[in-house]
Design goal:
This protein is α+β, with helices and mostly antiparallel strands. Among the domains are: about 80 residues, Classic Zinc Finger (Double Stranded RNA Binding Domain, 2-Layer Sandwich), CATH 3.30.160; about 160 residues, Double Stranded RNA Binding Domain, CATH 3.30.160. The chain is about 40% helix and about 15% strand. It has 19 helices and 36 strands. A two-stranded antiparallel ribbon has the order 1-2. A hairpin with a 6-residue loop joins strand 17 and strand 18. The longest helix is centred in the first third of the chain and has 12 residues. The chain starts with a helix and ends with a helix.
């Protein structure tokens, strides 16, 4: 038996010559359709003269051995080896291997969306997107993974998912050794090398490297939120966000770390977590040497250099460098708190705060410093802590030479220069430079003291006070002066002490030249005027 015969015998995607058998006479046909035509006339003497005899013409690729039963699929496949792209867009220089892809691309230029959903007014540029959308209405998920119970609305995502089980990564970057499980991720990665950004927003000059980011951005202009949770009224601009949200209701965490037992509700969080094990930081800022585990934080960081703040609040003039901060800010206006703790009745405006709170119940501290045994509930504080070891202070004030180890301290300091107090108490007119200070103040009104010491009955309004108190019991003094061996239980005491060495007096009264090392000393001085 040669290679071709062996492949035909085991390949589930091919229709071999003897696939379809007549139930009356046992005759075999190459397709179900031919068999059905035969069965209509089987046993009829008049039809014996016009029996159908079909043979399948097999095409085998000379480059990889792949087999095809249809000429058009074979022709398309060969172009992946030859690089031939015979179809060119009439509006730009972009070329394609298939005519269908070219036509879909040309609709970006024309704005044509000929396919309308049969259940709503939504229209689409191509038929496959319409089918995928209509399954949101019908709930149909016709494709099931061969290795688990997960089902999908499309065959493509199912195949990509199955590669999680098999470990297959068939797409390799032509510029580096990086490999990918799906074609979309491969193309997006190669554009990091080429700098190509072929998708332009129809409402502004912003361009994008991938179609998904382009569509998501345009929804900022249109306000469209086409995806609705099946368990509540919440709507989303992206299907992925909707799926992640629905896992809050179901508790599903289908992605498991390959290095430990930790599981995740979405693939991106799993990838980010696995980089803690591998130390991989594949994304580098174009303006400095900083590297990142994720593309999103890299983009947000690059906006520090560019000053770009593309997200504007719909209720006030405030703008933001990242979508997360924008959403969190808008919830200050709306009062929305969509995340509820699974262990108590507490609700949260953002997912990060919700996760951090739940770790109070579980005691989980998944992030460990690379230089010592200290563990953290969040990745951000771990990174800030590691800068104590490295001495790195990447954030510089735009008004003076002062540098900071973390973004929050940098923003807080800059508000000394600007006088900005963006957070206002919901119960009185008091305003604050930081959201945390506002929340602590609001607990004076509510009487809430949600943090309890694990060693005694003492309760606290804020997490910082709770941690400082627990260090009285443990004797822990994790903050060490960079100029001497003195250690401190909290960061504020460390900063105040280090000003003895540096001579820094950052707090100045606006009505005289007097300066102070601590803010509360400045406040006392104000009271004397």
């Amino acid at each position: 038996m040669n290679y071709l015969e062996r492949h035909l015998k085991r390949c589930p995607m091919l229709v071999s010559y003897e696939s379809w058998e007549c139930s009356r006479c046992g005759r075999k046909y190459s397709s179900k359709d031919y068999r059905n035509v035969h069965e209509k006339d089987c046993g009829n003497p008049e039809s014996s003269k016009r029996r159908i005899n079909i043979s399948v013409k097999i095409k085998q690729c000379q480059h990889c051995g792949k087999i095809f039963t249809r000429q058009n699929y074979f022709t398309k496949h060969k172009r992946t080896h030859t690089g031939e792209r015979p179809y060119q867009c009439r509006h730009c220089d972009k070329t394609f291997t298939q005519q269908g892809d070219m036509k879909r691309h040309e609709r970006i230029h024309s704005g044509e969306r000929p396919y309308q959903c049969r259940h709503c007014d939504k229209t689409f540029a191509d038929q496959s997107n319409r089918k995928q959308h209509e399954r949101i209405h019908s709930g149909e998920r016709p494709y099931q993974c061969r290795h688990c119970d997960r089902t999908f609305t499309q065959q493509g995502p199912m195949k990509v998912h199955e590669r999680i089980h098999s470990g297959e990564r068939p797409y390799q970057c032509r510029h580096c050794d990086k490999t990918f499980a799906d074609q979309g991720s491969w193309k997006r990665h190669e554009r990091l090398h080429s700098g190509e950004r072929p998708y332009q927003c129809r409402h502004c000059d912003k361009t994008f490297a991938d179609q998904g980011s382009w569509k998501r951005h345009e929804r900022i202009h249109s306000g469209e939120r086409p995806y609705q949770c099946r368990h509540c009224d919440k709507t989303f601009t992206q299907q992925g966000d909707m799926k992640r949200h629905e896992r809050i209701h179901s508790g599903e965490r289908p992605y498991q770390c390959r290095h430990c037992d930790k599981t995740f509700a979405d693939q991106s969080n799993r990838k980010q977590h696995e980089r803690i094990h591998s130390g991989e930081r594949p994304y580098q800022c174009r303006h400095c040497d900083r590297t990142f585990t994720q593309q999103g934080p890299m983009k947000v960081h690059e906006r520090i250099h560019s000053g770009e703040r593309p997200y504007q609040c719909r209720h006030c003039d405030k703008t933001f460098a990242d979508q997360g901060s924008w959403k969190r800010h808008e919830r200050i206006h709306s009062g929305e708190r969509p995340y509820q703790c699974r262990h108590c009745d507490k609700t949260f405006a953002d997912q990060g705060s919700w996760k951090r709170h739940e770790r109070i119940h579980s005691g989980e501290r998944p992030y460990q410093c690379r230089h010592c045994d200290k563990t953290f509930t969040r990745q951000g504080p771990m990174k800030i802590h590691e800068r104590i070891h490295s001495g790195e202070r990447p954030y510089q004030c735009r008004h003076c030479d002062k540098t900071f180890a973390d973004q929050i301290s940098w923003k807080r300091h800059e508000r000394i220069h600007s006088g900005e107090r963006p957070y206002q108490c919901r119960h009185c007119d008091k305003t604050f430079t930081q959201q945390g200070d506002m929340k602590r103040h609001e607990r004076i009104h509510s009487g809430e003291r949600s943090y309890q010491c694990r060693h005694c009955d003492k309760t606290f309004v804020d997490q910082g006070s709770w941690k400082r108190h627990e260090r009285i019991h443990s004797g822990e003094r994790p903050y060490q002066c960079r100029h001497c061996n003195k250690t401190f239980a909290d960061q504020i005491s460390l900063k105040t002490h280090e000003r003895i060495h540096s001579g820094e007096r950052p707090y100045q009264y606006r009505h005289c030249d007097k300066t102070f090392t601590q803010q509360h000393t400045l406040k006392r001085h104000k009271g004397n005027h």
